[in-house]
């Protein structure tokens, strides 16, 4: 129900590109959650490379950034251009890079804990 509500709110903003981006990112996130749950069920610890690849999706960073964009642009009086923001998409790229970097560092630490737990 909550996902349907989010989609309705995005659709009401008449921003189809963001809606498609959000839906595809949520799909990736939910599939990654299934991958993680299956690993836990079978007490399987994936290799570091596989874990780091999937951690980008299991962390939920991308859908969170899109929801932030939607919330910011959805505020009353908010325009398409944010004050003090230079370069448009460059700011998105930097934010995505920093979020991915943080997720990678956290994932490396988490993986070492899980590997030790099941060893």
Structure, explained:
Helix 2 (16-41) packs antiparallel against helix 4 and helix 3 crosses helix 5 (89-118). This protein has one domain. It has helices spanning 2-12, 16-41, 48-58, 61-73, 89-118. It is built from 5 helices and no strands. The relative contact order is 0.12. The protein is 76% helix and 0% strand. With 119 residues, it is mainly α. The termini are far apart.
Question: What characteristics describe this protein?
Answer:
mainly alpha; 5 helices
Domains, number: 1
- C-alpha geometry: elongated
Residue windows where pLDDT falls under 50 for at least 5 positions: 75-87
Distance between the termini: 40 Å
Task: Briefly summarize what is shown.
By secondary structure, the protein is mostly helical. Mean pLDDT is 75; it is low at 75-87.
What is the strand and helix layout of this fold?
Elements lengths: L1 H11 L3 H26 L6 H11 L2 H13 L15 H30 L1
Helix pairs in contact: 2-3, 2-4, 3-5
């Amino acid at each position: 129900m909550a996902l349907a509500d989010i989609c309705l709110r995005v659709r009401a903003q008449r921003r189809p590109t963001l809606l498609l981006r959000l839906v595809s990112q949520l799909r990736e996130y939910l599939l990654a959650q299934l991958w993680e749950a299956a690993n836990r069920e079978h007490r399987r610890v994936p290799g570091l490379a596989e874990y780091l690849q999937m951690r980008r999706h299991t962390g939920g960073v991308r859908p969170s950034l899109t929801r932030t964009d939607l919330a910011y642009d959805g505020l009353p009086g908010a325009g398409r251009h944010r004050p003090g923001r230079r370069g448009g998409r460059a700011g998105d790229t930097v934010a995505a890079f920093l979020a991915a970097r943080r997720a990678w560092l956290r994932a490396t630490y988490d993986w070492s804990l899980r590997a030790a737990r099941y060893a």
